[in-house]
Hints:
The protein has helices at residues 18-25, 88-91; strands at 33-34, 52-58, 61-66, 71-76, 82-87, 96-102, 105-110, 115-120, 126-129, 139-145, 148-153, 158-163, 169-173, 182-188, 191-196, 201-206, 212-217, 226-232, 235-240, 245-250, 258-263, 270-276, 279-284, 289-294, 304-307, 314-320, 323-328, 333-338, 344-348. By secondary structure, the protein is mainly β. It has a single domain (18-348), classed as 7 Propeller (Methylamine Dehydrogenase, Chain H), CATH 2.130.10.10. The chain has a five-stranded mixed β-sheet with strand order 1-25-24-23-22, with no helix packed on it. It has a four-stranded antiparallel β-sheet with strand order 2-3-4-5. The protein has a four-stranded antiparallel β-sheet with strand order 6-7-8-9, with no helix packed on it. It is globular, with a radius of gyration of 19 Å. The two termini are 24 Å apart.
Amino acid sequence: MKPMSRTRSQASGSLTSRICRILVANLLGMALLTAGVPTSSAASVAAHFAEPTAMTVSGNNLYVVNTSSNSVTQIDAASGDIKGEFGGTRLRMDSPVAIVVALSRVWVANFGNDSVTEWKVGSNSGNVLSGSKFGFSQPQSIIYEGGFLWVANLHSSTITIISATTLKARILDIGSDGCLSPTALEYSSGTVWATCSQSNSLLGLSSANLKVKSFVGGSGGRLFGPGPILQVGKNLWVANVASSSVSRFDVTGGTRARLSCEVRDGFATPESFAFSGTNIYVANMLGHSVAILPSIGCQQTGLRHLVSTFLREPDALGVIGSSLFVADAQAQDVVEFSTISLKVIRVIH
């Protein structure tokens, strides 16, 4: 789930309010691991980012979504150089919140005007998908799998499935299956999973026949305002934005997917996941840190938090090689950390 940003706070009434997130931040009580200092100063004015709230990796490139400026910034991860900025009236971006790159194309979900913008990598022109044919209604998440785009529509509790080649669309009413206000999507071994923030549940759909394979309810506090989702091996990790916790499910049982364990200590509005080696990284937005979880389990043993003076509202994560990139919505920059030393390599403005 993306943050209750300054551009979307009124429109996203079903999401956790920013005031609640601030209160959740007071729950922090874990010892923190402090990172080193960067090689460049973060004092300069951020020129290329405006409330970066989403990020994706493609090859050696980072694509960062700027929700406030209605644009996307492309970064060369090796050099830290800005390779391009995309947006403006031609591409009709409006409060973009999610992005995916596949088939040498970029797709961006626009929460503000119920549309998806697409363009070819390296091109300044693009196409805008909108209208009743696609049924977008506050699109919140977008993924690509097997020739199709899957778009989660927060307001209408639907998923729009679009052929990447023909642009033919099909709209699934997942609200009737008990999934209200889908906020994030993830693909895992023939199943597309959706977190359902309003119904506190997790829905698994067959990518082949689009039928429901699994439904996991959040009774007992196991899921509360679920948002970001990540698949690692046989486990599915879910960040609960409302309860500032992380849940883990074993999905190998298909329809018998069950909660394995839960971590609560030290989280305050988890907003994004990334995976590298044996560690899962969680952007801990109002905790001003990045949580580091062992992928073998979510018990408290070994749980650490990566902290730096350059992290104010870490919101989106990406990993390339041995580098962890953190987009900070408040500082309006991207901080690169070494996943080995956990020290800051550079701050990209």
